[in-house]
Amino acid sequence: MLIIGENIQILSTLVKNAIENRDAKPLQNLARRQVEGGAGMIDLNIGRRKKDGHEVMPWLVDIMHEAVPGTGLSLDTTNAAAVEAGLKRCQELGIEAIINSASAEPERLESMMPLAAQYGCKIIALTMGANIPATADGRLELAMNVIIPKAMELGIPMEHLYLDPLVLTVNGMQAHAMETINAVRMFKMTFDPPPMTTVGLSNVSNTTPHEGRSLINRTFLVMLMAAGLDSAIADPLDEKQNEVIRIIEQRDDSTPVGKLLLTLYDKTAAMESLEPDDVDMSDPDQVAIFKTVRILENKTIYAPSYLEI
To answer: What proportion of the chain, given as a percentage, has pLDDT over 70?
Structure first.
């Protein structure tokens, strides 16, 4: 499971101020911590950055190369000029790059996808046009009819194309969770060779209470991995999440919670649901996982106090 570290993003006051002041140190420290936490790539989210994005992105590439040499970079902006400036610098320094992101929207597709072909880099493509389709079928349709044909036209190999089915919050949009899981499964089953897949994981817990976000994120991640997910833009500083990834990848059933997580993984892979009989209801940690699964499967209405019900 490739984790693309999400923590260098423009909505963070620390990141915003560091970029404005061209202060490399806090950003480099954050990059090092993410790599130490297991990130295989670092996302550099600068927002639209219309005026100076073409200057900011190569500067970020340079300071990341100093701090975490050999680590790939995800160039995260809708500004195509900034992406290209970053790609040029990555190419000069021999850094693996991924464009984050294109979509099925014509303007964005036509501005970003050719850059991936020109620079031979990877690209994330959101399965959305002007709006996000409500169903997995709708997201598959955009991938099949718009995104993948464009990639094939430009000679972009499937191993360089990461489809993102889009994750929405369980807080008011929980029906989308299973549609996202099903979309990942469909992407892997429909195409030969199949494209790669990724998600913005923490979006699933957006606007939920901070103390419960990791549980929602990591439970959802197990289900996504079972459907065939290859990578996630996520927080590598979340040690509990990292432990869950390790349990799944190593098939470690040495603890009761580990056994339950593997059961959840196996049942999701088989398109089955976790059942009460799979859970030791005297174990609060297992009960919390089960209740979270019920929320993600849209079988229980989400509320901030769902674990207490």
So the answer is: 100
